[in-house]
Amino acid sequence: MTWLIKNWYILLLVIVLVIWILVEPSNDSEDNNIALLGEAGDENIESEVHDEVEEVEEITYMVDIKGAVEMPGVYVVSEVDRVQDAIEQAGGFLQDADVQRLNLAERVYDEMVIYVPTVGEVEDGAGKIGSSAVDNKIKINTATMEEIQTIPGIGEVKAAEIVKYRETYGRFEAIADLMNVSGIGEKTVEKMEEYVRVP
User: What pLDDT shows up at residue 95?
Assistant: First the structure.
């Protein structure tokens, strides 16, 4: 007992060492658990992001390709495709195709008819030769501000609002959706129907 009193600091050191040995593995275990939870959380976040990406479906259209191409027919194309891309799906042009009469950079749209004329071919009254639709209406989902301003009653401000709305909320699914654009009401939309189309 006398020895313990004289050497109390040794006893204290032994107690501290014992406590440290008992506590340290527990801390390591907690750190490992935190690390594992962090890794699991990262995997869950990556999985959720992947699922969200998969949910975004690409919009596709059906186009009818006729005339001087290798394989005329109806093809499925993407909303970002151009006439050139559609022609490539049809096997490309025939040797006598009059490519100069087509706008190969034009964006495709649903139910579009792409007619490729041959050199020397003339219009037969059945419609305009080329990649344009059977009408000359403005394609409101792909038109530029300049093109939109050609619509009677639509100036620069309203054209800018249409483009802004389209970029913010996405495509117009129906002409009536134009009433959601700032500054455009029911009467304006009624007047626009004659000049615009929603492919």
Answer: 92
β-pairing, 112-116 vs 60-67, is parallel
Residues 102, 65 contacting (CB under 8 angstroms) = no
In contact, 60 and 78? CB cutoff 8 Å: yes
Per-residue pLDDT, 53: 47
Could you tell me the two tokens for 148? 């939109």
pLDDT at position 125 is 39
* Cβ atoms 159, 182 nearer than 8 A: no
List b or e across 24-40, with b for residues whose CB sees 16 or more CB atoms inside 10 angstroms. eeeeeeeeeeeeeeeee
Mean pLDDT by 10 residues, the chain (199 residues): 59 74 58 54 56 61 91 91 93 92 85 87 51 65 88 91 90 89 91 85
Evaluated on CA atoms 147, 153, 159, 165, the torsion sign reads negative
Q: What gap in Å lies between CA 139 and CA 79, rounded to an integer?
A: 13
Quote the pLDDT of residue 74. Answer: 93
CB 192, CB 154: distance < 8 Å? yes
The three-point CA angle 113-175-159 to 5° equals 95
Phi, psi of 139 (to 5 degrees): -80, 100
Burial of 53 (0-12, 13-18, 19+ CB in 10 A): exposed
Closest Cα partner for 98 from 74, 125, 131, 63? 131
